[in-house]
Every structure is written in C-alpha cells, then in structure tokens.
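Researcher: Next entry in the queue.
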Amino acid sequence: MTRPSGDRYPALANRDGLQSLGEEISRSQRSGRRRSNRRRRRVRRLLTTLAVVIVLVVGATAGYGWYLNHQIHRVDVKGLTPGATTGADAGTQNILMIGSTSRCALKVQNPAYGLCQAGVNGVNSDVIMILHLNPAKRTVSILSIPRDLFLPNTRTGSDGAYKIDAALYQGQSQLINVIREDFGIPIQHSVELNFDTFANVVNALGGINMYFPMPVFDAYSGLNVPAPGCIHLDGYRALQVVRARHLQYKGAGVTTNNHAAWPYEVNSDLGRISRDHEFLRVLAAEVAKRGLGNPVTDLRLVNSVAGQLQFDNGFSTSNMVNLLLTFHSVNINKSPQITLPVSVGPSVSYYYNGFPKGEVEFPAAVPDQRAIDTFLQINADTNTMTGAPLPSPSSVTVSVLNGSGAYNQAADTQSALEALGFQGVGVGNSTPPATQSETLVDYASPATLGAAEAVMHQLSGAVTLVQAPTADGAQVTVVTGTQFAVNAPSSAPTSTSSAPTSTSTTQGAPGTAAAAAGFQPPSPSNPSLAPWDPRACSASGGAG
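Model: Structure for this entry, 544 residues:
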C-alpha cells in the first residue's frame, strides 16, 4: 500500500518525520558518545605520555645534576662575601676566575709546560680575572688584575710582601682576602682552572681561529707564528697565545727571521692581558655561534672541564645553571673589559725589606678607584663592600706614620688631611721598607673599610688599602711612601697641594711622582690591542 503523501495528510507526515528525527538524534548521540570517548582516551594517552616525558626529563636532569656535582672538584674557600639581597646591588655576584700555573696539579705531566718532578713546582696565578654579574640589568663586566702588582700583604706571615700572583701559593682563600682587603671588592664565588682545563675548553669547541697581523714569537710560552694570517688554534696553541708575556714581533723594517733580532713588546704583563681579553671575545663568539643550549656542545664543554675545575664549595650546581640561563645571551663584546691601571717599574728586581721581589708594578690610586667603581657599577662616594655612602671626613680619625724617611712627611701629610676635614689623632715614624715604596692606607677591620676608602679617595699616586693594625687608636693610619700626593682643599688653587715635599705637587697628575722614581705613569684601564696582537678573523680570513 502506498504511503499517503505528507501534503495531503500532514499529521501522518509529522508523525513519521518525528520518528525519523528521533532516530537521527539517537544515532547522533551514540556517535557523539563514541567521539567523546575517543577524545577522552586520546587525552588520557597524551597526559600519560607527557607525564612519562616529564618524569624522564626530571629524572635525567636530576641524574645529570648528580653526575655534574660528582664530577666537579670543590674546595673549602674562606673569605667569601654573601651577595647583597637589598638595594641596587641585590642579586649581583662577583666571581673570581683564577688561572693557576701549578704543574704538579696536572693529571698528566707535559714537558712543554715544565715538569713538576723537574722542579717546576711553583703555584702562582697567571690570570686574575673577576666577573661582575648583574641579573637585574643582565649585564656583565670584567676586571683583570695584573699579576705583577706588588702588595705588602700578598701572603700571611712576617714577610708577606710579594707580587699578587704569589698569593695563590697559600690557596684561593688568601688571594680572595687580598682582593677584598686591598681593593674592597667582595667575592661571592671562585673558580680555578689550570693549563689542561683551558686547553680542553678550546678543544671541546673544535678550536678557534685568530688573525695574526705579523709574525710573533715567545720563547717562554712556545708561541711561534712565522707568517701573518688567520690561524686555527687548538687548545695547546691557544694556551701559548694567552700565556705569552715575553712577546717578540717581526714588524715593519725587520727583514731577518732570526728571533733574537726581533724587538720585544714593552708592556709584557699588560700586553698579555689585552690579548687575553681579545681571546675571550673570540671564544665567546665561537660559543655563541654554536649556541649554548646545544646539548652536544654543552655536554662536550661540561665533560671537558668539570673534573678539572676547582669551585668553591658554596657554588651550587643550581646557581651555575641559573647564571647560565640568565647570561648566556649577553654579548661580551659590548661588556666592559677593564684592566686595573698600574705603574710599571724599571726592568730590575725590586728590593723590599732587603729581599728581591722581581720586576714589579705599583698601584695607581685615582685610576684604580675609577676602574673599580666602573667595574662594580657604583658611584665614587660608595663603600665598595657594602654599597653604603662613604662617611664624611669629619667622622673619620686618622694617624700618619712617616714610612719613607723624608723630612717632616708625617706632620705635613696630617696637616693636609686635616685641611680636608679629617680628624688627625697622631703622627710617628715607620721604618722605610724600600727606596721606592707605596703609601699604605691601613684599617683594622672590615667595619672601618669605608673610612679608609674615604681617606684613599683624597690621595693620588702609588697608594693601596691594607687591612692592618692602626696607630694611636685611629680608624685609619696612613703609612707614607715615596710616590703620593694629598688632594688640595676644594677652595685652594688646583695647581698645588699641601702634600709633603717629597711627593708630586701637581694636582691631578698622580703619575708624575711615580715616573720620577723610575715607574711609568699609570697604564690605561681599557688598552687597545698592539699592532702585532692577534684578533678575530673576518669571514674572508682577514682581520676581523
């Protein structure tokens, strides 16, 4: 029987339509439930997979952290300063990087470095470099301290006066103490590396390229580049570059290949620091090109150095990782790389208290203070250890000891400091230690460092801070040397000062007295490369 048309029997059509609609809805609901069930199963599988991945990643990270912790060699280091938690310095860290010359510490002896069993067993710091890290600003600055800088308290004991590189003989703690006491620089962490560690870092990157503008030679480090050009350096040859401090070069007009006839660079230790800074720039560019975060490169780097670096025992792996994540993208070429200015002495051995100390360099108060303030990113009137303002002169008591033997020097210096507002409490004499000597600004404890810095800021020439007992109950004792001047009061003419007659009397020229005593004027804090120094290669193989 033919179904009646819906047009003629609308009631029947609606009933059949409703039935069809119900069936369609039922089919749709069943299909929807199936799709929903499939989605739920996919989500569960995805969540399960993610959970497994997370567990594996966390487990691998924890495992690698455990591995790294057990690979790194940690040492007990004293004298570290907790990082600031408030103020403008909050979160900043100063990390001391030490390049050790210890041959006896090498796992495998290398005749090219000198053999421990052959008597090459000295422990000195070839490199003294401090990194200042500011996480809030994402900035890095670098300060290098010349290794030949002579200081009266480099080592502990009755005869502690040596070049600063000798402090490492008594361990990292002593070097940190010297840097804190004499320069007012707080150190939060320290890292020591040796010849092998350095070479392994370079080799882990596959070596680097540097352009040599002219032939160079160093008989002590083994560096020998016979022709100019872009040269590939493996770890061993890179070490020859950064250790070269007796460099000879074949410049214009030199026609012989006999190294004995090649001239020596004048700046020795300072020239080496300039080359080290340039090497760092090239190395950082190579790391950036390969990319920190590249597991292959990172793992190779970590494995090459982890077992040979010496970290202070408070430098946690998590702190290292956080620093890496924060600063890995910083362009080191735009970061200040500062060398502490020094006055280089004559090329003869310096005698101090009757003992030879080798060729030395003296500090230079005014440019040194500026360099340290720039490095720490602080104002000139700031206590470098605490970040607090320096005390006013009227609140600081000062005594003066004549340490050079010059007539009436203690009294004259006391009068000059009193004219600047300091409270003089006594004068006396101290046995002169040498024909030329530094002026010492002594303070008895860290609590009076700010007072000592306030006094030092009014001196120029060869002047250094020293944590040592003071005289006459003063907060600060100035032990006069042969090469210094006291600032004139601001109302006085700027052409003279009330400094002792044996010192420079030209205001604003702290190098004059040093030069007169056989020491050169202060070196620059940001020296340029010499024409013979290696530098980055360009893409075409020329000078970068």
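Model: The longest helix spans residues 10-71.
Researcher: Noted, moving on.
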